[in-house]
Specification:
Family: Belongs to the class-II aminoacyl-tRNA synthetase family. Phe-tRNA synthetase alpha subunit type 1 subfamily.
EC number: 6.1.1.20
Helix content: 40-55%
Number of strands: 9
Number of domains: 2
Largest sheet: 7 strands, mixed
CATH superfamily of the largest domain: Bira Bifunctional Protein, Domain 2
Radius of gyration: 43 Å
CATH class of the largest domain: Alpha Beta
Subcellular location: Cytoplasm
Pfam families: Phe_tRNA-synt_N, tRNA-synt_2d
Strand content: 15-25%
Cofactor: Mg(2+)
CATH architecture of the largest domain: 2-Layer Sandwich
Bound molecules: adenosine-5'-[phenylalaninyl-phosphate]
CATH topology of the largest domain: BirA Bifunctional Protein, domain 2
Strand order of the largest sheet: 1-4-5-9-8-7-6
Amino acid sequence: MDSNELQKIEKTAKNEVSGAKNLDELNDLRIKFLGRERGALTLVLRNLKNLPQEERKIIGKNANHLKILTEELFEKRGEELKKTEFDSILKKEWLDVTRPGAKIERGSLHPITLVRCEVEKIFSSMGFGVVEGPEVETEWYNFDALNIPKDHPARDLWDTFWLKPAQTGADGTRKVAENFLRNSASSLRSSALLLRTHTSPVQIRYMQSHNPPIRIIAPGRVYRYEATDAGHDIQFHHVEGLMIDKHISIANFKAVILELFKKLFGKEVKIRLRPSYFPFVEPGFEVDLSCIVCNAKGCPVCKKTGWSEIMGAGMVHPKVFEAVGYIPRNQQGFAFGIGLDRITMMKYKIPDIRLFHSGDLRFLKQF
Ligand code: FA5
């Protein structure tokens, strides 16, 4: 061991410490030079005892001096590296708190949902409850109980999607659903399955489990196997209505419907009742609303007539009361089925019903 060796250690330490690229590298170097076991300077100091006394004095002094110097080198380089690392973190994670936030895309309710909610609110304010029923129905509820027996020509009024007998899923879910529907008709009743063509079966289900007085609406999706055009789709929505008590008349029906339209459209509207045939009401009529899309001037929605057929209605037929187990003469009432899509078109002046299911965001984003 001589002074040359110490100078060599000093030179390498200076070079390597100043060249350390990060704190890990610096730590390795610290072990290399100052490490307790095998650090270059530690070994020098440890071996001092083997040197002659004179040499030990000089080398010892120089080695201690170098140790202090090297520790200062590490300290200084450590500070530099910490600052560089901190600066790079700051650069990476820098956040401009004054920058305006990114706009969160929000969905909106479908126009039909908006109008459905509004219709429900208006009917609720007139004391009507809101009930629902299954979209997959049995033939008995959709037709038979509504006084539309098999082979009756009136069935042709409702072009029906019939369902094939269901495949049972591994978990038996479809079977359970089918059994539920079939059991809720009786075993003697027709249990073929279909997609309901109107929400009138909900009034049957409700009357089976409730006695008059009744005041309900039944909104929901319905299906028909028919050609589509600006005013017709194969999947649309009905709001069925039913009001039954001892002395309910068509005058009550008119008052309720005019109140609905007045509140929904925010102004008095014109309606007209045309005699019509529905097997489950007598008398039956269709209600036309003067076309709001074109202000009754004529457009594709009203087929250029100025009127749009909006609903079917009438006084509940005694046969329907019989089907649900009521004594026909004990009560009377009206029922109606509003085309929800049609009144939505009127409210928002939508010229084509097919837009509702087009999935076109340019259309949907307007609501
Ligand atoms: C019925 O379905 C009856 N259940 C309504 C009813 C209930 C009458 C209670 C009497 C008593 P209709 O098939 O007319 O009736 O349908 C009712 C309304 O649904 C129509 O007035 C019309 O506004 C709308 N509608 C009918 N077919 C379509 C279709 N393909 N696309 C869109 N809306 C339709």
